[in-house]
Design goal:
With about 80 residues, the chain is mostly helical. The chain contains three helices and no strands.
Amino acid sequence: MGNDKRKAKKHAFRTPESILFILAIMGGSLGSIIGMYSFRHKTKHWYFVVFMPVILLLQIGMAAAIYYSPIEVLFR
């Protein structure tokens, strides 16, 4: 978010919004939310304000489901 904000101020080539969402889905949702509000970037876009926390909640839910699952998950 900080890099895209910097590019926006310089009128340079911007990071596409789809890439920002893909990075959030890949595990960067908490960082995206923190970056949104610390850099005040994308906070006027309703879909960022709504869907970034939704992605975070889904990731927390999936992590909890895996942790409390009766099936043993081995990562080797």
